[in-house]
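TA notes, week 10

Several of you asked for a full example with nothing omitted. So below is the full record: structure tokens for the whole chain, then the designed sequence directly under it. When grading your own attempts, check the secondary structure regions first.
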């Protein structure tokens, strides 16, 4: 399947909010419910795919039988892609927002072929076990972040704590899109990364780090200390220099998994 997504974002803002559509052939054979109130869903309906670059990367990285974590799963556009690619494997979709999580679960339920292989979790991931507040961007419905002072209370746990409680035997791929909290997620996953060496695909959009006490380079250096190398998310998967410029999304891959992307 060729993934282009051409033209989706350009016209999404022209759609009236509140319209609902069912995509019957999402990622070839899946169903995906769209509400045009949410810009990312409107874009998906117009383009036929959500985030073509990420979808292409997941196609290259995920293998049948994989255990995949979708951290910041939103309405499930990429959760469904991951579940389809993992086949008899397992996908754990972390989404702290109650409203968005309902849409995520509904999209999973539309697809019996993957439903039994997806578990939706009402959690945020971070560096420590705490309660934060989920605040949705009023100018971009469906897009939100965790804050200290405003929003709806949600539970946040370190991935290491969740892995220990779940006794999960392996993790192969982790996708992280948490609006600037990527570093906190990685800090709380240090033992998991050192144990399983999963392939990582994470957002590094510089604007999200403007008011943070760390930078994109901080993420890179943390992962390099764990034996990872940082790459661009498209072929030929060249290494990203520590000094930048930084891509919107970055890939961290451990030598244990270089064969997944045909890296030497």
């Amino acid at each position: 399947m060729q993934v282009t997504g051409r033209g989706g974002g350009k016209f999404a803002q022209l759609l009236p909010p509140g319209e609902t559509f069912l995509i019957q052939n999402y990622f070839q054979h899946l169903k995906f419910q769209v509400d045009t109130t949410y810009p990312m869903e409107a874009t998906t309906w117009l383009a036929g795919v959500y985030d073509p670059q990420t979808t292409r990367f997941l196609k290259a990285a995920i293998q049948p039988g994989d255990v995949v974590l979708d951290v910041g799963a939103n309405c499930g556009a990429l959760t469904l892609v991951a579940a389809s690619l993992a086949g008899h494997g397992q996908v754990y979709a972390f989404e702290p927002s109650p409203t968005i999580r309902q849409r995520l679960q509904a999209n999973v339920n539309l697809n019996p072929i993957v439903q039994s292989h997806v578990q939706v979790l009402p959690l945020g991931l971070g560096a420590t076990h705490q309660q934060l507040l989920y605040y949705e961007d009023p100018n971009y419905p469906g897009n939100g972040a965790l804050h200290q002072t405003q929003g709806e209370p949600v539970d946040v746990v370190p991935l290491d704590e969740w892995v220990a409680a779940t006794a999960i035997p392996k993790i192969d791929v982790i996708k992280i899109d948490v609006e600037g909290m990527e570093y906190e997620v990685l800090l709380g996953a240090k033992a998991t990364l050192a144990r399983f060496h999963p392939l990582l695909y994470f957002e590094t959009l510089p604007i999200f780090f403007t008011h943070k006490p760390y930078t994109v380079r901080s993420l890179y250096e943390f992962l390099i200390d764990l034996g990872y190398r940082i790459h661009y998310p498209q072929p030929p998967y060249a290494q990203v220099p520590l000094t930048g410029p930084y891509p919107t999304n970055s890939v961290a891959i451990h030598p244990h998994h270089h064969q997944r992307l045909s890296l030497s």
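Confidence is low (pLDDT under 50) at residues 1-11. Use that as a sanity check on your answer.
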